[in-house]
């Protein structure tokens, strides 16, 4: 009512028709101008240029030399270096590696693959005509890929299911100009794979293979990259386009190494130095003369570096701020200075504020980290870390073969010592010390990992066994239950290391390897098997103290095993800690088995199977919860595919893991230990020695055997985890039986020796 009164009280101001028409026109003009300005603002995009200098044959040996060229020190005193895992789906090669970089998933090339310009003759006909003959499609852009359809078909059926061309199409759809110049042609063959980085899903790309090169008869391949021509092209691109992605395939180093075997050694060294100086000069010209983000990338190291097992490729990024300095950090590898080949496409999209919304690639954008650089130069930090990685990768075969062989010899020697000297306490004590040293050896592989680069492979293994024997003598003197104490020492050491950043784990011969690229973080399968059974075996003294006979004792044992199992599941399954799904599920299976042995023995089989199925589903749910609000991991990606209904991808993953297990079974050193522990020594000794152990020891050994079998089935490298876990189970069980025999033969002496122990 009050409002109505106010409205009725308003006095209207008279306005002429001309004034009214003028105001209407003025309003329309203002609205139109506002709409135009909004559209213009929406259409205006920030200027951004990314330049990828692709250098086949570049390794960290060359980077070390480039770093030492004083005249280009301003280059290497800025920017963000890293080492890239270049492992493809198949053999290590220039083509396979580049396809992998371009798709963001492990990929493989096909025979006869290459890029051609219109008019180039291929199989006796122009490249564009061959494309028409093979696909029925006319040549669109300036660079032609006649076999692109075969590349797509092959990778579609591969284990990783990459999609060639998705990255180039993503850039085109965002209005980003893409272009490739240069080649790595040699006298023997055409090598021009840089266009794979900009190719679209139709198999087309813009560029000029010969641009950026000039004739040079005195150089390998009769070609030489021209810094002047490359700079001119990049400057022109910067003037014409606001956003661009340009690939410069710098092939001089590849051409040089292709002829090394025929060149005079002194002359090769001369041309080698000149080639590196030319590369540094070109980078310096781009660094000073062109705006944009510069990526120096090696898709494959040269043959010399590959033979020396230096397979990580150097990466260096200069931001628009040429003074910025740091180290690349990869969320995929969770390491400073170590990135994955799957990270490139994600990082380049991120540079243009784009995302891989369809998840075509598996990598994540790298982070430009300044905090990692303190007193040392950024490249020196990366070079030192690469030296450690290459040392482990290069000598892993020798170390594992000698270590596994020594463990097998240890088991056989102990068996012979007991079988042929059944009544000798001296031999039984010596055998017990040998078994305890075997149980302690993984601990020393962990703790001595920073020292691996200072020793040869065989000297390192000999040192491991020497310190293991000495520590076994010490542990047997200090602890009343030395085998459980040894397991507790390893369990504690690995737990603390993982919780504090895995400094020791990532450097150990018994852990993951960034060169192989199967795992970069967490707890690998070698240590996972040992960690899993050590967590159970270390609580044997507690279970033995309370017993497992009465209901009250079983409830106490249940509480102890529940606490340990929770720690195992969280430590192994959490994405930020162990990130080992197979081992985490195996820990759950161990727990379920222990509960069934304590309380559910009388249930019928169908009820047990139903309970087991429900428990497994519950554990899958718990494992998923452990991935939430954690760093993205391979486990979380698998759950995403599963929840998204991508059953084909899940099936491919299962098949790939089965194939990996079969391959490992055929070629791995761990297979020898697996066979010895499971089918030879395990069966014979378990049947003969089980009667010499007490109830809790037999019970928890059976729990651990269930876990070892679960590891064999659930892990992608199950044979490795099963072999290491069963070796620990067997050694500890055998050691327990020997201890009981020795104590029964001379109980008084054993009591006196145990008076000063504290475990």
Number of helices: 28
The main sheet orders its strands as: 8-7-11-1-12-13-2-16
Number of strands: 17
Q: What structural class do the secondary elements suggest?
A: alpha/beta
Mean pLDDT: 83
**Low-pLDDT residue spans:** 1-13, 35-44, 748-759
Instruction: Give the radius of gyration.
Output: 33 Å
Oligomeric assembly = single chain
State the major sheet: 8 strands, mixed
Shape: elongated
Name the helicity range. 55-70%
What is the terminal separation in angstroms?
89 Å
What does this structure look like?
By secondary structure, the protein is α/β, with parallel strands linked by helices. Helices cover 58% and strands 9% of the residues. A hairpin with a 2-residue loop joins strand 4 and strand 5. The model is unreliable at 1-13, 35-44 and 748-759 (pLDDT under 50).
Helix and strand arrangement:
Blueprint: H1 2-9, H2 17-43, E1 48-54, H3 60-67, H4 73-76, E2 80-85, H5 94-103, E3 116-117, E4 121-122, E5 125-126, H6 127-135, E6 143-144, H7 148-156, H8 166-173, E7 177-183, E8 207-208, E9 213-215, E10 223-225, H9 227-240, E11 243-250, H10 252-258, H11 265-289, E12 293-297, H12 303-307, E13 313-318, E14 327-330, E15 335-336, E16 338-340, H13 343-351, E17 367-369, H14 378-420, H15 425-447, H16 457-478, H17 482-499, H18 525-537, H19 540-546, H20 551-573, H21 581-599, H22 605-625, H23 634-643, H24 647-667, H25 670-689, H26 695-714, H27 718-745, H28 747-753
């Amino acid at each position: 009512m009050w409002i109505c009164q106010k409205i009725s009280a308003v006095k209207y101001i008279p306005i002429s028709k001309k004034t009214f028409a003028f105001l209407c026109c003025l309003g329309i003009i203002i609205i139109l101008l506002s709409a135009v300005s909004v559209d213009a603002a929406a259409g205006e995009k920030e200027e951004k240029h990314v330049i990828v200098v692709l250098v086949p044959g570049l390794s960290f040996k060359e980077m070390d030399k480039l770093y030492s060229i004083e005249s280009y020190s301003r280059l290497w005193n800025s920017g963000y270096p890293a080492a890239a895992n270049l492992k493809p789906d198949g053999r290590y090669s220039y083509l396979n590696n580049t396809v992998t970089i371009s798709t963001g998933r492990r990929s493989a090339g096909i025979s006869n693959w290459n890029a051609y310009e219109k008019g180039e003759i291929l199989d006796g006909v122009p490249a564009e005509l061959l494309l028409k003959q093979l696909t029925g499609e006319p040549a669109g852009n300036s660079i032609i890929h006649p076999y692109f359809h075969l590349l797509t078909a092959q990778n579609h059926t591969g284990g990783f299911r990459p999609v060639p061309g998705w990255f180039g199409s993503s850039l085109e759809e965002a209005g980003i100009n893409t272009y490739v110049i240069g080649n790595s042609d040699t006298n023997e063959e055409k090598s021009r794979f840089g266009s794979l980085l900009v190719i679209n899903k139709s198999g087309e790309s813009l560029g000029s293979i010969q641009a950026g090169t000039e004739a040079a008869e005195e150089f390998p391949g009769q070609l030489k990259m021209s810094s002047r021509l490359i700079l001119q092209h990049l400057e022109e691109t910067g003037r014409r386009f606001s956003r661009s992605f340009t690939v410069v395939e710098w092939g001089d180093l590849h051409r040089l190494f292709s002829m090394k075997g025929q060149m005079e050694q002194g002359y090769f060294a001369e041309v080698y130095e000149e080639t590196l100086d030319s590369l540094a000069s070109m980078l310096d010209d781009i660094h000073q003369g062109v705006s944009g983000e510069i990526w120096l990338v090696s898709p494959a190291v040269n043959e010399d570096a590959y033979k020396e097992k230096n397979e990580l490729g150097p990466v260096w990024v200069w931001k628009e701020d040429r003074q910025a300095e740091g180290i690349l950090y990869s969320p995929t590898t969770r390491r400073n200075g170590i990135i994955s080949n799957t990270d490139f496409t994600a990082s380049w999209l991120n540079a243009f504020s784009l995302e891989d919304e369809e998840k075509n690639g598996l990598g994540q954008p790298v982070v430009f980290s300044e905090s990692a650089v303190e007193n040392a130069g950024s490249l020196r930090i990366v070079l030192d870390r690469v030296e450690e990685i290459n040392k482990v990768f290069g000598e892993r075969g020798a170390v594992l073969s000698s270590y596994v062989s020594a463990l097998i010899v240890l088991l056989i020697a102990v068996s012979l010592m007991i079988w042929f000297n059944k009544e000798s306490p001296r031999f039984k004590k010596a055998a017990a010390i040998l078994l305890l040293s075997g149980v302690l050896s993984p601990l020393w592989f962990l703790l001595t990992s920073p020292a691996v680069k200072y020793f040869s492979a065989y000297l390192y293994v000999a040192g491991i066994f020497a310190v293991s024997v000495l520590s076994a003598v010490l542990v047997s003197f200090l602890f009343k239950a030395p085998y459980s104490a040894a397991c507790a020492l390893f369990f504690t050491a690995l737990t603390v290391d993982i919780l504090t950043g895995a400094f020791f784990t990532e450097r150990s011969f018994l852990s993951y390897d960034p060169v192989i690229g199967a795992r970069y973080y967490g707890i690998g399968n070698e240590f996972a098997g040992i960690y899993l059974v050590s967590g159970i075996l270390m609580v044997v003294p507690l279970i033995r103290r309370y017993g497992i006979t009465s209901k009250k004792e079983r409830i106490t044992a249940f509480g102890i095993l529940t606490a340990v199992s929770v720690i195992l599941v969280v430590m192994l399954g959490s994405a930020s800690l162990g990130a080992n799904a197979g081992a985490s599920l195996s820990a759950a299976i161990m727990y379920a088995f222990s509960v069934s042995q304590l309380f559910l023995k009388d249930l019928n089989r169908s009820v047990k199977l139903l309970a087991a199925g429900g428990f497994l589903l519950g554990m899958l749910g718990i494992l998923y919860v452990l991935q939430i609000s954690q760093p993205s991991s391979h486990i979380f990606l698998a759950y995403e595919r599963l929840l998204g209904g991508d059953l084909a991808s899940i099936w491919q993953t299962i098949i790939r893991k089965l194939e990996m297990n079969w391959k490992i079974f055929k070629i791995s050193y761990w297979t020898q230990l697996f066979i010895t522990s499971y089918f030879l020594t395990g069966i014979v000794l378990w049947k003969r020695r089980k009667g010499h152990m007490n109830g809790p020891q037999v019970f928890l050994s059976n729990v651990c055997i269930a876990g070892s079998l679960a590891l064999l089935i659930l892990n992608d490298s199950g044979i490795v985890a099963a072999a290491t876990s069963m070796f620990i189970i067997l050694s500890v069980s055998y050691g327990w039986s020997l201890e009981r025999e020795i104590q029964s033969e001379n109980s008084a002496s054993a009591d006196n020796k145990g008076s000063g122990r504290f475990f």
